[in-house]
Design brief:
Radius of gyration: 17 Å
Oligomer: single chain
Strand order of the largest sheet: 3-4-5-6-7-8-9-10
CATH architecture: Alpha-Beta Barrel
Shape: globular
Number of domains: 1
Distance between the termini: 19 Å
Bound molecules: 2-phosphoglycolic acid
Structural class: alpha/beta
Strand content: 15-25%
CATH superfamily: Aldolase class I
Helix content: 40-55%
């Protein structure tokens, strides 16, 4: 893949002239009550500067969405949900739909996180519908893909990524694909402290972009590809400086405001 120089505004500028604004998204998973979320945002906002060259998001439990949208309003910090159902409404007990999220002014939604795939039976088929439903509602989807340790050891990383990317995007047209963010998260690096090497991360995010390019070259230049898996303030700069990496999806490292702000600042410097 072509190396993209940083643009005048610090954006990743493609060889074709397109721009991608990097994104640092904190995925809280099933953590934080509303009171704890309020404490977090009060600690985070003074530590980060709202500047145009970087998007910052927190992906919070459903119960904290309204409070975080209200508390982050005007700060530049975007609020994402962690999953949603593909149907607009209906007999799906316990589920939440895209219009329910947009009504709260939620900015986007994480889809297909490996924990959802593993523990909650999230299928590629449902995910393809979810990505489309999110875009149609005006939400920014972050589609997660990534291989297990066994798959990597067996040399099946590319096959797994090809399958997940193709399946996840197959219902979308080129314009829609360009608006998807894809997070490459090697499952063996999630919550383990075992971060991918810069070379492993670059190879995988470049491969994900190339897979998008197989479908539509224009979208490949526009699509944001993040890295996720044990991102911390001390490894963020190296990962975020990779030529094909447009940011990070951060789990454990996003739970305290100081650490998350450290990753945001590392991203600005990368
Ligand atoms: P981690 O999680 O940063 O705790 O490894 C990443 C994720 O699950 O998105």
């Amino acid at each position: 893949m072509t190396r993209r120089p940083a643009g005048a505004e610090g954006r990743h500028v493609s060889a074709r002239g397109g721009t991608r604004t990097p994104l640092i998204a904190g995925n809280w998973k099933m953590n934080k009550t509303v009171a704890q979320a309020e404490e977090f945002i009060a600690g985070l906002l003074p530590r980060i500067s709202a500047r145009a060259e970087l998007d910052v998001a927190i992906c919070v439990p459903f119960t904290a969405l309204q409070a975080m949208v209200d508390s982050a309003r005007g700060s530049g910090v975007e609020v994402y949900a962690q999953t949603m159902h593909e149907e607009l409404e209906g007999a799906f007990t316990g589920e939440v739909s895209a219009p329910m999220l947009t009504e709260l002014d939620v900015h986007g939604v994480v889809l297909g996180h490996s924990e959802r795939r593993e523990h909650f039976g999230e299928t590629d088929r449902a995910l393809a519908a979810k990505v489309g439903a999110a875009l149609e509602a005006g939400l920014h989807p972050i589609l997660c893909v990534g291989e297990t340790e066994e798959e990597r050891e067996r040399g099946e990383t590319d096959r797994k990524l090809r399958h997940q990317v193709q399946e996840g995007l197959h219902l979308l047209d080129a314009d829609q694909i360009a608006r998807v963010t894809i997070a490459y998260e090697p499952i063996w690096a999630i919550g383990t402290g075992q971060v991918a090497t810069a070379q492993q991360a670059q190879e995988a995010v470049a491969f994900v972009r190339a897979l998008v390019g197989d479908k539509t070259p224009e979208a490949a230049e526009a699509v944001r590809v993040l890295y996720g898996g044990s991102v911390k303030p001390d490894n963020a700069a190296e990962l975020l400086a990779l030529p094909d990496c447009d940011g990070a999806l951060v789990g454990g490292g996003s739970l305290d405001p100081e650490g998350f702000a450290g990753i945001v600042e590392a991203a600005r410097g990368a």
